[in-house]
Amino acid sequence: MASSRGSRAGSGRRGGIGSGDPFAGRVAIVTGGASGIGAALVRALAARGATVVIADVDEDAAAAVAQRAGAPDAAPGTQEPGQVSTAVLDVRDAAAVAGLVNRVAAEHGSLDLMVNNAGIAIGGLVEELILDHWDRVIDVNVRGIHAAYPVMVRQGHGHIVNTASLAGLVPGPGLAPYAAAKHAVVGMSLSLRAEAATKGVRVSAICPGFVDTPLLGRVNPGLPQTETGANAVVLARRLGKLYEADALAQDVLRGVAANKALIVAPGSARFAWRMARYAPGLTMRTIIAGLRRDLAGGPVTRPGEARAASGSSAEIAAGAAEPAVIPVAPAAGGADLGAPSG
């Protein structure tokens, strides 16, 4: 069940749709907007003059993001932020998601942008996982992304943005349930994009590598823990500097404005994607070789050290989206699960 409360952000003057900024005056819902990538997208949209509804299970964190999003350091003459409000929402509740979407569209006259960003991270070797790990990641990461489409079809416009992951584009050993869910998000997004184009609706999928978000510290939430999940933060940082969520948010807004089908960032994630796409055999052999080195206690190659012909699994294997993909170190008994960044 969803509930909501308003939280006026900043002075509250909404930008006009004709102001030149493609996000000014638009109405957006961001699920999972109380932290990480979602919070960064809320800040970025509000700073561009959009009216944003943060939908999240964490009411207090959402309210804190809403308050901060309303007071960015804007240069003179720039667009003032729009309004930011919050709604308590569990994306596994399909009726609640549909209710929020319909209410927001009715109250504001339209829903221009639906960012399906809520997600959880599941990490561990398949033999360590139980069915609940698979069910939870599918319920949270895949369900709830359908509600906005009928509304946007009726109004004849809108943009649906689904947060997937680099793990939805390249192999992710140690992340099988998570990678399965993110491949589903990518496949659904691309398939819907083709249908939606005939209705005036746009669809994009975000596929980031490692991003510095709190989710790294919440792998396998409420589920039996694995060594990979328990050590996710340490393991991820062994690969180098994580990508900043605010930088990714800017990448996303540029991609949405350009109507890109897949928004893959940063550059290291695009490199891994191209390798998996154009040299799948080499990519798989490289991942397997890296996994074997890790299991044997070999050194972990840091970002930037790999080469196309002999890169480590850290460079080629899947990285995580908001939910980050976990690089499994020898101590965790696994493989690299992420491209450097977010």
What does this structure look like?
With 342 residues, this protein is of the alpha/beta class. It has one domain: NAD(P)-binding Rossmann-like Domain (Rossmann fold), CATH 3.40.50. The chain contains twelve helices and eight strands. An eight-stranded mixed sheet has the order 1-4-3-2-5-6-7-8, sandwiched between helices. Strand 6, helix 6 and strand 7 form a beta-alpha-beta unit. Helix 4 runs parallel beside helix 6 and helix 10 packs across helix 11. The longest helix is centred in the middle third of the chain and has 22 residues. It is globular, with a radius of gyration of 20 Å. The two termini are 31 Å apart.
Chain-wise SSE layout:
Blueprint: E1 3-5, E2 27-31, H1 36-47, E3 51-56, H2 59-69, E4 84-88, H3 94-108, E5 113-116, H4 131-141, H5 148-155, E6 158-163, H6 176-197, E7 201-208, H7 227-230, H8 232-237, H9 245-257, E8 262-265, H10 267-278, H11 280-295, H12 313-316
Parallel strand pairs: 2-3, 2-5, 3-4, 5-6, 6-7, 7-8
Antiparallel strand pairs: 1-4
Helix pairs in contact: 1-2, 1-9, 4-6, 10-11
- How many helices? 12
And the CATH topology? Rossmann fold
Estimate the global geometry from the Cα principal axes.
Answer: globular
Give the strand order, joined by hyphens, for the main sheet: 1-4-3-2-5-6-7-8
Helix content: 25-40%
What value does the average pLDDT take? 80
> How many separate domains?
1
Structure summary, number of beta strands: 8
Rounded to the nearest angstrom, the radius of gyration is: 20 Å
Query: What low-confidence regions span 5 or more consecutive residues with pLDDT below 50?
Result: 7-18, 71-79, 299-342
